[in-house]
C-alpha cells in the first residue's frame, strides 16, 4: 500500500501550482491599495490597521504592476484551488486519510502534549504516520486556513454578497473579510516555508509525493516514544 | 465522477504552467482560459443569487463618514462646468438605441419618477469600500417607458468625462439592467451628487465593482452588441487596462 493516495498526490501538485499563482497574483492585487481595514468600509489610509509594503515586481504575477492581469490570474487559479479543496476533503473523508492522520482530541491540544510530540519527533519519525504536531498543523491548514481563503475570497466578491449576505456578516464586513484574506494568505505562506524546508531535508518525501511512496505502518515495532496523550485515548471518529 | 472536473482543471493548470514561462499576455491560451474562468464565476454568482438577488443594504448609521471619489473626479467640458455651477437645469439624459420610443429626460423628469433610496457599499476594484445613501429612479422604469426592443442585449452608458483622451463608457447586460437596485442616482446622502461622485447622474450597479458605476451619464443606449464601441471590450477600463467586463468578482 502506498503512503500517499493517488487523490492526495494529484491534489497536492495541482494545489501547489494554484497556491503559488494565487499568492503571487495576490501580492500584485495588494499593491493596488496597500491598506487594510476592519469593518464594512475603509478607503482612507489613516483609518487602516495596517499599511502593507509595496511588494517588489519579482514577487508578483505578472512581473510588473497590472491589477487587471493579476486579477485574471487570481480568479482563474481560484477555480482549481476552491474546487480542489472540496475534492480533497471528500477524498480524505472517504479514504480515511482525515480520520487516520488529521483528527485530534481536546487532550492533544495541551502544551505538554505538543512538547512531548516535538521531543519525540527527532527526524526519524518520517514515514511512520503523522505525529501530533503534524496533525495539528495539517488540521489547521485543511480545516481553517484553506477554507478561510475560499470563504473570504468569495465574501469580497460583490456578486457573491447578493447570494450569501450571511458570509459577510459572519466575517465582520467586507473590509474585515479582505483583512482576513490577507492574514490567512501569509499564514499559509508560513506553512509553505516550513513544509518545503522539512521536505528538502529528506528528498524521498518529495519523491513519494510523485510515486506514492511506501507506507511504514506495516513495520514490526512501533516507535516506543509515542505521546503520553495517546495512552488510553479512545478511538476517535 | 470526480474525474471529469479534475481533468479539465488539470488541463487548465497545465495551460497556466506553460504560459507562465513565456511572454503570455497576447497569446490566445491564457486569454480563453481567463475568459472561461470569468464566465464560470458569473454563471455561479447568477445561479446562486438569482437574477433579482439583492446586494446588502445598510442603515444610515453604518455609512462611511465621506464618500471617496476616484477615476474621473472632474469634467473639464465648459458646458458641464456651466451646468454644474447652475445646478444642471439644461442637463438631459437620453435613452436611445434599440428602443421603440427614445427619451430625453431632465433632472426634474427623473425626480418626478418613483424613487428608490438605498444605502449600499461601493467596492472599488483596488480594494477599498465606502458606504453611501443613493437615490434615483430604477433603470427598469426608463427601459419600460422607452420600450426596449427584444434585440437589445446590453445597455451602454455614455458619459461626459474624458480620461486619457477617451470618452468614458460602460456596459451591462439586461439582467443587471432590470435588477431592482440598478438606479440612476441623482443624490448621495440626501444631497445632489458632488462632482467627484458623478454629478448630476451616475449609475448604481450594486452587484459589481465601482468601475461599472458610470458617472456623469449623458445617454443610455440599448445595443445588440458592444463589439463596435470603443475597442469592443464593453467599457473604458476594459479597453484601456483589460479589466474584466463582469466585475462581480
Précis, in short:
In chain A, helix 1 packs antiparallel against helix 2, helix 2 crosses helix 5 and helix 5 packs antiparallel against helix 8.
Describe the structure.
- The complex is a heterodimer of chains A (237) and B (249).
- Chain A is mostly helical and 237 residues long.
- In chain A, 60% of the residues lie in helices and 2% in strands.
- Chain A has a single domain (6-218), classed as Fumarate Reductase Cytochrome B subunit (Up-down Bundle).
- Chain A has helices spanning 6-30, 67-95, 97-102, 111-120, 132-155, 158-161, 165-171, 174-201, 203-211; strands at residues 35-36, 50-51.
- Chain A has a two-stranded antiparallel ribbon.
- Chain A is globular and about 55 Å long.
- In chain A, 35% of the residues are buried.
- The model of chain A is unreliable at 123-127 and 218-237 (pLDDT under 50).
- Chain B contains seven helices and eleven strands.
- In chain B, the strands form three sheets. In chain B, strands 2-1-11-5-6 form a five-stranded mixed β-sheet. In chain B, strands 3-4-8-9 form a four-stranded antiparallel β-sheet, with no helix packed on it.
- In chain B, a hairpin with a 2-residue loop joins strand 8 and strand 9 (191-192).
- The radius of gyration of chain B is 19 Å and the shape is globular.
- Chains A and B meet through helix 1, helix 2, helix 6 and helix 8 of A and helix 1, helix 2 and strand 4 of B.
